[in-house]
Design goal:
- The strands form 3 sheets. A 3-stranded antiparallel β-sheet has the order 3-4-7, with no helix packed on it. A two-stranded antiparallel sheet has the order 1-2.
- By secondary structure, the protein is mainly alpha-helical.
- The chain is built from 12 helices and 7 strands.
- 66% of the residues lie in helices and 7% in strands.
- The chain has 2 domains: 315 residues, Up-down Bundle (Rhopdopsin 7-helix transmembrane proteins), CATH 1.20.1070.10; 43 residues, no CATH class.
- It is a multi-pass membrane protein.
Amino acid sequence: MNEVEVSKYPIPIPLYYVIGSGLLIVVTLGPFMNITSLAVFAQNKHLRSPTNIFVISLLLGDVGMSCVALISMVAHFNRYYFWGDRVCVFEGFWLYLMGLTNLYTHAVIAVDRYIVIAKPLSAHRVTKRVAVVAVLVVWIQGLLWASFPHFGWGKYTYEPARTSCAVEWDSKEIGSASYNVAITIWSLCIPLGLIVFSYYRVFMTIRHVARSGIWDTSSRIARKNLKMEKKMFKTIAYMLASYLWSWTPYTVVSVWAIIGESRDIPVYIITIPAVVAKSSCIWDPLIYLWTNRQFRIAFYKTMPCKSLGEKLLQRDELKHRETESSPPQEPQELRHKSNRLTPLRQTTTKQGPAVSVSEYGQKTETMGVSQINVPHVVVQGPSKTGNVC
């Protein structure tokens, strides 16, 4: 049977070109952003922290996904899949492998941030060696789940628009249906649960530190921590938004196909979420580029177009100076409570020295996410009182 007859144009012809244009952006922007980001880590040794090893793994998965999206892009512009069955199986396997490792790595990054920020006394356990082992586990796990269809559990096939290939979500066979349910739970529900829990705990920890009143609200440390809280909220919000935006629509459609009749689902509703999921490969480098100035500066210096990189670097430096020169406004809530806050929280005894926490909120930055160091303890002279301020 002729390839065009098999397709029968199940979606409106203009939509083929719209989707193809969207994939063209992914194929063009994805490799550039991710490969340039990898070059930044390769050329800047000081950026290769344990956390950034996870980010490097994420970027590698994004590169793989954006490059293979070329197959689907060409098929959309031609309005049918002329690559053949073998390429179809390869595309489905490769995209699913990249997608799984992408999701797992996001969850690992969230857990890493939770340990470093919410459990700072355990942060020393997250070494580069631990990070490398975690990355290997992520990729082995993704490879395992993506390979099951090759051995009969699950199946890769053409999607209804016949312009790309993926897991056969609407199969009613026991083997394929059980695989679809298992992979949906393991690839979306569990990673999403880890991300929500970890970033919620991170945000609550930072908000508690910023508002606990262990420093003077007019001090430089307090202002930095209040700024850190806002920055952390923005980072978490955009990371979660990119995760949900990219993968939830595709998963909802997939579950719909599993529990219902796929014939009841319009073809364009199945096709568009698959393209949105492929776009996930461009969001991660953009988020880190936006939220981390240290990485952003190194990225500008690594850009192939030196003149553009220098202009962006100058613009960023000017904006940073303007931000630093503008004194931050004291929040209204803390302004009303300022009479109850003391510069230092002192603990004294009748016989021993007083211990005060002077720099609880010291801040460092790693890939746009702030982390809190263990409080710095300063020993003062003896005191005659036994009160706690």
